[in-house]
Amino acid sequence: MQDLFNALKALYQTHDSEIAKSSIRTIEEAEVTDPMLKPQWDPLCNLVAGLKAEELTLSLTSLVLKYMKELHWRKAVSGKLPAYYSDKMAAVELIGPTGMFHNSTGKLGFFLQAPGVYYPSHWHPAEELYYVLNGTSGWSVDDDPLTSCQPETWIHHRSLQPHTMETYQEPLLALWTWSGDLSIDGYEIKET
Questions:
Q1: What is the pLDDT of residues 163-176, one digit of tens each?
Q2: How far is CA 76 from CA 41, 110, 111, 121, 181, in A?
Q3: What is the pLDDT of residues 174-189, one digit of tens each?
Q4: What gap in Å lies between CA 177 and CA 49, rounded to an integer?
Q5: How far is Cα 93 from Cα 9, in angstroms, rounded to an integer?
Q6: How many Å apart are CA 73 and CA 111, to the nearest integer?
Q7: Total-model pTM
C-alpha cells in the first residue's frame, strides 16, 4: 500500500492548510508495517468497486479501488448515527488510534455514501478536511444552503462546525482526515 500512502501525501501537499500539514505528519508517523485490522467488506463498496478506469477523474481513486478489498470498511459513525443513515454509509479509518495502521495524533481514511442520501447537520470536536474522489454531491456548513461539489474539491470543517452532505445520482467516495480532538464522544447530529 506504499503507493497509496505516497499518493495521499502528494495530495495533501497541494492544500495549504495546517490540517493538510498535520495529515502528512499522520501518514509519515503511522506504523505501517502490519495492519491492526483485517480486511472487511461492506456491501456499499459494490457501488464504486465496479467503476472502470475511464469513468474515474482521479488516479488516487484508482488506487483506492485497487486496495478496496484490503481495507477495513465499517458502518460510518457506528453507534452514534441512527441505522437508517449509517446503513447507507461506510468508512475506513486507514490511519488513526483505532485504524488499520496506528497513529495516536491524527486520523484519515475513506468515506462512502450511497446515492440519494441526505446526511443531516452534524458536528464533532475534530477539525475535518474532505477531498471528493468520486460523485457530485451537495455540502453545507453552518446551515447554509447546499453547494454542489465535484470530484477534486476540498471541503473544510472547523471543530464543532455544523455540516451537511447530500448525494445525488452517484455514490460519494471521499478522503477524510481529522485533526485535534479525535474523540467521537462529542459527535452530535441534528435530525430533521
A1: 999 999 999 999 99
A2: 13, 10, 8, 15, 18
A3: 999 999 999 988 899 9
A4: 22
A5: 16
A6: 9
A7: 0.94
